[in-house]
Amino acid sequence: MLDVKFIRENPELVKQGLLNKNAKDIVDEVLELDEQRRSFIAKTEDLKAKKNQVSSQIPQMKKAGQDTTGVFAEMKRVGDEIALLDGQLRDVEDKLDNILRSTPNLAHSSVPVGATAEQNVEVRQWLPEGFSFTNDFKVLDHIELGKKHSILDFERGTKISGSGFPLYMGKGATLERSLINFMLDSHLNDHGYSEIFPPVLVNRESMKGTGQIPKMEEDMYFIEKDGLYPVPTAEVPITNIHRDEILAEKDLPIKYVGYSPCFRREAGSYGKDSKGFLRVHQFNKVEMVKFAKPDNSYDELEAMVKDAEDILKALKIPYRILLLCTGDLSFSAAKCYDIETWSPAENKWLEASSCSNFENFQARRANIRYRKEDKKLEFVHTLNGSGLATSRLMVSLLENYQTPEGKIIVPKVLQKYTGFDVIG
């Protein structure tokens, strides 16, 4: 959530930042409501001071035998006026809060300005030794490979739940579980994260805290009877671990990693690629979350990207890093890198991870602060990154590791988890 004080002091900067993010300009409306809010507060404080002053005179008046009827009448009038102003103040604050909660974060100055994904900037590529973008045999896609080896069954998944709910079978289920365990172990043992196994149902305050609500509410599943949401990402429950808490500066950065299934309605995705794993409503993801000091949160972002890259290098899967332009940034992100893996069958890059710095945007919404050495309180910066999502990563794994005979070689780093080295 943007800081009203920052908007008040930098109105033109905020207007340009919202324009760069293809967002509605709310600056003038916010400034008007903020002026009303401060006016109501000032009037209320003056009236309360007056009421207190008059109240302090009553004992002396009674002691002197003076009539206090008029004083009590004046106090009632002042009290009624205070109540009226308090109600008006609440209305203004509610309007202001609703606007701010629906307004996106501003992009960091290092983010390229652009309106669409076509203006994202490729930062680097990594290709395994001997890799080629062309194959000298007919490449099967992940759906064909899944059918050939009875490891994926999208048709039965649709029968059970509807489209977008994949069913892993036999060695496919083992491979998926092995991939998750490998990624968790790597982040724990090599990258210094602490493991979290979070709830997969969260309340509305948790969804508000990370910015999914109210802006993206239509993309979320909702269990109305219980008022709970299946998580769209483990970022939500893990970030909310410290909601309404004050952290110690010496403990920062705090680095968590956790696995969860993720659920998304993808209400705005009609017309996009939807076959197989390319767009699903349920998928698995290992998530990295950091709570960092503002002065080094961008160093922590670069380190987080490297942590995700290390997974792909170990798996020997070709990937590239994109720096997203302002118009393609998510609602809450100030800066974001996408990591895309190569699909030989689709002949294109597929997003498998996003690593973002939200600065204090989420921390303001969730009220997560830290106490500095000088005892002052400041909002932390929150970061998150997929480390990684398995669905599109599985596409790249199966397709890049297939042989001319149609078998699938299991990546060496996964073989101790799977117990087998080939499928087929």
Map the helices and strands.
Layout: H1 4-9, H2 11-20, H3 27-63, H4 69-101, E1 121-126, H5 142-148, H6 154-160, H7 170-189, E2 194-196, E3 201-202, H8 204-210, E4 229-230, H9 235-239, E5 246-248, E6 254-263, E7 282-292, H10 297-315, E8 319-323, E9 335-343, E10 348-357, H11 361-366, E11 369-371, E12 377-379, E13 381-389, H12 390-400, E14 408-409, H13 415-418, E15 422-423
Parallel strand pairs: 2-6, 5-11
Antiparallel strand pairs: 1-8, 3-4, 6-7, 7-13, 8-9, 9-10, 10-13, 11-12, 14-15
Helix pairs in contact: 3-4
Features:
424 residues, 13 helices, Helix Hairpins, elongated, 41% helix, 3-stranded mixed sheet, 2 domains, BirA Bifunctional Protein, domain 2
Commentary on this structure:
There is one protein chain. Helices cover 41% and strands 19% of the residues. The longest helix has 37 residues, at 27-63. The strands form four sheets. The chain has an eight-stranded mixed β-sheet with strand order 1-8-9-10-13-7-6-2. Strands 5-11-12 form a three-stranded mixed β-sheet, with no helix packed on it. With 424 residues, the chain is of the alpha+beta class. The protein has two domains: 4-101, Helix Hairpins, CATH 1.10.287; 117-423, BirA Bifunctional Protein, domain 2 (2-Layer Sandwich). α3 (27-63) runs antiparallel to α4. It is built from 13 helices and 15 strands.
What is the global morphology? elongated
Cα separation of the termini: 51 Å
- The residue fraction in helices comes out at 40-55%
Please indicate the percent range of residues in DSSP E strands (runs of 2 or more). 15-25%
What CATH architecture of the largest domain do you see? 2-Layer Sandwich
Report mean pLDDT, rounded to a whole number: 94
CATH class categorisation of the largest domain: Alpha Beta
Q: For the largest beta sheet, what order do the strands appear in spatially?
A: 1-8-9-10-13-7-6-2
| Total beta strands | 15
How many discrete structural domains? Answer: 2
| Order of SSEs | HHHHEHHHEEHEHEEEHEEEHEEEHEHE
